[in-house]
Specification:
This protein has 55 residues and is mostly helical. It has helices at residues 3-28, 41-51. The protein has one domain. It is 67% helix and 0% strand.
Amino acid sequence: MQAEQWGIFAVSVLYAVAWMRGLWLHWLAPQHLHQPAFDNTIAHSAARKTSGAEN
């Protein structure tokens, strides 16, 4: 293989991995993996307390 062919091969592998990751995350993953990573309920309640808004 020539140097240019190795570059195209590497880009193709990266593209395939990214495609498979997207397929897994958006179509195949169990539902518990679709939950947001950060639950910002505490941040919202703290912001309401400091802003003077009533609950």
